[in-house]
Amino acid sequence: MTLPIAQIEADFHAHIDSSPLVISASTGSGKSTCLPVWAKKIGRVLVVQPRRIACTSLAEYLAEQSQQPLGKEIGYAIRFESHFDENTQVVFATPGVALRWFFESKLKEFDVVMLDEFHERRWDMDLLLALLKSHQAHKLIVTSATLNTQPLCDYLHATHLHSEGKMFPVEETFIADDMRVMPNKHDLAPRVYQACTQALNETQGDILVFLPGKGEIQSAASALKELDAIVIVIGLYSGCHKSQQDLALKQQSKQRIILATNVAETSLTIPNITCVIDSGLERRTHLRGGKTVLALEAIAADSAKQRLGRAGRTQAGRCIRLYGQYAPLIKTTPPEIHREALSELVLASACAGFNIHELQFLEALPSSSLNTAITQLQKVAALDNDLNATEHGKVLYPLPIDAEYAFLITQMPSGALKQAMIDAIAVLSVPARVYQLPNNSEQLEELNKVLPNQCDLELAINLLRGKAPHVNVEQHAFEEAKQFSKQLREAFSLPELSKAANFDRNLLLQHIAQARPDLLYIKRNNRRGAFGNGHSEVIPAKESRINDKAQAMIVLDTYAMAGKGTKQAMTLATCAAPIPLSLISEFAQCETTLNKAEIIDDDIMVNISHVFAGVELSSKLEPVTSDTLIPACVELILNNQLMPGVAEKVTGSIDYHTLYNLAENITETLPTAEQYLLETLTNLGIREQDDLALIEPEDLFYQGVESWLIEPFKEKYPLKIDLPELKLSVEYFFNAKRLTLHHESGARKDAPKRWELPAWLGFKIKYKKASKVVDVK
């Protein structure tokens, strides 16, 4: 069968040697299978494919077509698994693998690099493209199903080739109560069942159902169980079993319902699909508090178009949408660089030999995310001040885990602690949930006897080592965690998992706190039971073992519960370890505050508080030091406990200076009495309490306006008035030529008389007592 992509073969060969190629073609046109075969005629080909399932299935398909064993002429490389050697002509690899190869050798083993499905706009694909553009050493092919290709062609100075695919008509149906209702997860499984039963009556081919994730796939599969007699129900998602992939990717004799994530949107060709059921949902990353989190979102219009296209590949088809026809979907899915943390991108760039500011990206990196990433990487000593990778950074980057996790491993002082940290991080690095706590109370009680510390970190380590009874594991995710542990143990030349060394939990927590004090959280005094670190607030998740007695904890993993607004959002701690408050005192960045100064037996004492995240850790009365002497003296002066009368004199002088400036329309920022006294005592060189004997009260007086100016002004515009049985304060409004007399104290009931007051020529005078205001005449 001739595939649509064949129409551009001659142009492909005509231009591949002279310029980069940007090739746009619809899904199923044959670009992922034909282009690598064409390209290998001019050299060894690396095909970078965003998804692992697509990477392995494409390699297996082409190897089968070549009638050669997998790994001989056609091979692949994904995390933890590879089938190729130095003679393999076409190697499919995921972006993470390709980036590490670029770091090691600049991909010098390959002549042609093909970035497939570039329209998905993953950050690692954007980075690879920027690196390859800068390196200028490979024939470059970039393919896309949906991308607006002009900006990409301009960026690469590339030749654009387009293949028109064959698309049969697809009839759309919308199942929704309102034409504008957005995709939502409410009663999703029953609605999928309803749509599937409708589709089975209307189509003879297979049915592809797009769902946001594994959990929704499993729920829908359970709802469809009663259809097992007439159809095969298959789940297709990242990490699903190889047998499920084979059932999905090869046509069966029985009609199929394939429940898939958007891995089936463009990356995979699934035969015999004549009906698509679109939930309109996906799980998409976005930034929250500087971290990448995963949230349930409505798809964009470009994804909706791709999903529909799956139904019209070989014959006329149907598309059933589980949302309104006029739902206001966003136009396109934002690129990952705009919705994810950039730490890994920045470190990868530096390790490949490029300062991040030296690379030209297809779209500029967001400055806020970029600056946050640089700060985080410098905090873990992965980047130097010139944003080049340090030797430490080069150690961290090749590890198949987040750089901040890798940093923790390197900071452990012994092999036993390194092993413990590796096993915990191995569990945390699996994107899927690895385990669930037992529901049975007896089993939970037995688990608590074996692991009594109510510690998620300890549980993760012991789970991987087979020492956590009754904990339910997700087998595939658990195996992936063990693979992480194996690879990390090998990288650090440590014994294999079966020979894991015992570790001291308290020592482990101490070194984590020392290496990453920003992971320390203390219980806040609020009703939510939240913990804070001065920058963010978290609440232990339901799946966490942290109990109500914990007063502080180390938090190693979180996820965000998105709300409609910032106040509704919650960050939940999923992997935490309870710690004593002493670790907070020792390693956290606490604030030291001077609460109260006192004079005891002629010695100045201060009450010093150590505060973390708004919680007081300790408070102690101590003799003043050189750092606390002047603030203590200022407090005592303002309270008239030291140099009585000085505070009143200074405050009054500053008040009159302020009033003088107001009368003369002078704009000037004046100090408060506290600020003035702090500065004056510092300038006088006060270092020890004995130095106070060398100064007189007059040395602290404030003189902001020359006395020959301020003295007559004070007589003309007093701030206080003392009358028989009445004390008043005066508020002036010079521009309006009016003033208000405020009742301060005194038994007089009536307002003051005009003759009792200063002249105040031209001023209108009001008298205010409580809420009552009267004119003074």
From TrEMBL:
SMART domains: DEXDc, HELICc. Gene3D superfamilies: 1.20.120.1080, P-loop containing nucleotide triphosphate hydrolases (3.40.50.300). Pfam families: DEAD, Helicase_C. SUPFAM superfamilies: P-loop containing nucleoside triphosphate hydrolases. Residues 12-165 form the Helicase ATP-binding domain. Transmembrane segments: none annotated. Keywords: ATP-binding, Helicase, Hydrolase, Nucleotide-binding. Residues 195-353 form the Helicase C-terminal domain. The keyword Isomerase does not apply. GO terms for molecular function: ATP binding; helicase activity; hydrolase activity; nucleic acid binding. PANTHER family: ATP-DEPENDENT RNA HELICASE HRPB. This is HrpA-like helicase. It comes from Pseudoalteromonas phenolica.
